[in-house]
């Protein structure tokens, strides 16, 4: 079994997934490996060597070399000396999801309106195996994390978007996302104790919104509300992020705008 090295995503190596689905004869390990190689380029990683990809994914360098060679022949990556980078063909994979997601396709105009109204970055995100993935976003020039865009993934446990969704999951689903999760301290203010996190999520359920203050990125404050779809099931979260924004202003000025918009988006999903 491949050993996950420093930098690999916990619980996501193909071999770990194979153990999870060992009773499923239809689970294709080679496909899981290839997808993990593509995911290694997530975030700000633009050029990666075979050694880099091996470290990130936990796959052996020999396996990575074969997978990258296949992806290169299929037109998903190209080599530049000893490193590789993604090609535009990979966009088709994400665009297929965005095109089929009714919330993502209709929300951009709404986010732009909110962004202009509050002069801050506004996003919609969905839960994705312990992370939240941005499916629509209107970015402010003042945003600290300028690299965040549609398709970016950030941890759910320490962000307002993620906590809004986690707090409204059924107990068994919440446990599935958090059991064994590596609650890393991104800053000195990140909540990393599971009992303390459970208290935070209970507060989100009570108030109906979540605030994260310098927990994911120093100086970054965010507020988010859940978006409920059919059957009153939480489908996504809508949030605004700003630099060192007073909590009173977030709750007094931005929260009413988010709540009204989330109600409208939820009604659209239930229609």
What are its keywords?
Arc Repressor Mutant, subunit A, 9 strands, disordered N terminus, three-stranded antiparallel beta sheet, globular, alpha+beta, 19% strand, 271 residues, six-stranded antiparallel beta sheet, Beta-Lactamase, 10 helices
Number of domains: 2
CATH architecture group name of the largest domain: 2-Layer Sandwich
What is the overall silhouette? globular
Share of helix, binned: 40-55%
Strand and helix order: HHEHHEEHHEEEHHHEEEH
Radius of gyration: 19 Å
**Which regions have little confidence, pLDDT < 50, spanning 5+ residues?**
1-11
Q: Can you count the helices?
A: 10
Can you tell me the CATH class of the largest domain? Alpha Beta
Roughly what is the average pLDDT, rounded to an integer? 83
Oligomer: single chain
Distance between the termini: 47 Å
Q: Provide the CATH topology of the largest domain.
A: Beta-Lactamase
Structural class: alpha+beta
| Assigned CATH superfamily of the largest domain | GAF domain
Identify the strand order in the major beta sheet: 6-5-4-9-8-7
Question: How much beta, percentage-wise?
Answer: 15-25%
